[in-house]
Write a structure and sequence with these properties.
Layout (H helix, E strand, L loop, with lengths): L10 E4 L24 E4 L3 H9 L5 H14 L7 E6 L2 E8 L18 E7 L9 H18 L7 E7 L1 H11 L2 H6 E7 L8 E3 L13 H13 L5 E2 L12 H4 L5 E5 L21 H18 L4 H4 L15
Parallel strand pairs: 5-6, 5-7, 7-10, 8-9
Antiparallel strand pairs: 1-2, 3-4, 4-6, 8-10
Helix pairs in contact: 2-3, 3-8, 6-8
Amino acid sequence: MRMLAFTLALFTVIASAQSTHPTPTQHPPPPKKTSQNPIIFWNMPRTSVNFLLRHVPQTNPIRLAQLKQTFNDLECQASNLREQTFPGGKNLLCTLPAGLSTDRTSSQPHRSPGIILFIADYKHEGLGQSAIDNWTGALMLPFIYHALTVAPRRHTFLFADVEGKAGAKALFDSLTSRQIQNTLGVVALDCLGLGPLRYYVNPYDTITGFQSNWLSIQLEQGALDQHVPVPKLALPGGWFKVDPTSEFRHHNIQSVLLFSVDFKSRKLPGSTKDTYASLNPDVYYQNLVRLSVYAVELDKLWPSEIQPQNDGMQPTARSQH
């Protein structure tokens, strides 16, 4: 895995003046403004991404070891990378601390950095290789982590590869009340590399309102920045077996599920055909670029940072303190 060291020397800048992704003529973007500031992130070579994607570990301990090595190779090290043991399994947590100092001369009220959580289940599922469900989501986390390290970030990002539903609950239970209060949102990744990104913002019982839709608003903004079609809102199907966001949603923390399964591919996850051969590496790489831009958009000001308290917005864990 150390072979990646010499391949990670380039980064991508996506600006409103000149995009690296030209507007598809058959799907023009909605008539809205792109971001005023450039979108900057590390852009990993396709060959490096595909090399890691095609080697799909078949046991959970080896999956964990492979993910840990990948995080380490992409410079999540020392105290920022740790295993979290719980009865019956292990999680892997990588933290990218906030790096922007607070501007105390700003007219905006002072806010401490929030926490943005990206989470995926790395546990082997089904009778196939469990490449789609859900090695694709678990492996995406170290790639997004590395994409964000090119510049200091306003908020702290926590990347959590969890071992099943029990791992997701163990992660939530390990957080302090202050960490829970400061969690701005949760982004769950599942079944990528099959097609364009789709999203679902209300898995079963989450809150509603403008602030709770901020995750989807910034997802749309990220698409506009790249001049690509906005991801479609879609219901997850029967393939969606583990919801790692449930504990957070039950505590009124907004969450979004991002996936690439459509009607035609709905039977692939967890089946005997759930293998690397069923993936499209080029599409997976496109998913990575979209998610990297999305993460940068999420790092900008949130409504809870710019809106006064008691402004009539739906209360969230962030606005209740």
